[in-house]
Design brief:
Layout lengths: L7 H25 L15 H7 L2 H17 L1 H19 L5 H31 L3 H13 L19 H6 L3 H24 L2
Helix pairs in contact: 2-6, 3-5, 4-5
């Protein structure tokens, strides 16, 4: 008769493996950008989904149509903003470095971004003006708590012309899409840190 002993080593190994799995999952989730509570950042125009959800049902159709028209009308402005951004980075990369030229290029980027966003802001103001005070408060709360619009989410709204970035996204492999998503999260975190540091 052999006396069986409790498998302490096996239990210790299973416990250590389980703990490492939990720690790895927590670190992976943190690295992927999962948070229990996200701070609201209003660095960019917030995603329209949250705003549309807060609108009264009878106003959604009108606002959606306005946003679609504005999206189509602002395509040249958005392309000018993209071109201004390219020119700014080209100016910054040119040697010898000319600070005045780079400053002027970034000023053109800011102006182009403002010109592209202004019509959307006008749409929001028009929609808010047509609401009751309670509806307006609900919509404003949705805008405050909305996440910023991500570049991958920039797409046509209900039948508008697709933008030039979309085909490139479709041509990407799953690995490239994952890398781009990670890069976008890193950019958003950097932007958030910059805003937190700014007075």
């Amino acid at each position: 008769m052999s006396e069986s002993t409790f498998p302490w080593r096996t239990l210790l190994f299973v416990s250590a493996a389980f703990n490492l799995l939990i720690v790895g999952a927590a670190i992976g989730a943190y690295g992927a950008g999962v948070r229990l509570q996200r701070e609201a950042t209003n660095a960019r125009f917030p995603a329209p989904r949250e705003f549309m959800a807060a609108l009264p049902p009878n106003a959604r159709v009108n606002v959606r149509g306005e946003l679609a028209r504005t999206w189509a009308q602002t395509q040249p402005l958005r392309q000018q903003a993209v071109q201004a951004r390219r020119e700014a980075f080209d100016a910054a990369a040119t040697e010898p470095f000319d600070a005045a030229r780079v400053r002027a290029a970034f000023a053109r980027v800011r102006a182009a971004d403002q010109a592209a966003l202004a019509p959307f802001h006008d749409n929001v103001v028009t929609a808010l003006a047509q609401m009751t005070p309670a509806e307006r408060q609900r919509a404003i709360a949705a805008l405050r708590n909305a996440r910023p619009l991500r570049r991958q989410a920039l797409g046509p709204v209900d039948g508008a012309q697709p933008n030039a970035v979309q085909p490139r996204q479709d041509a990407m492999t799953p690995r490239q899409r994952m890398r781009e998503a990670i890069r976008e999260r890193i950019r958003e975190r950097r932007e958030q840190r910059r805003q937190e540091m700014a007075p």
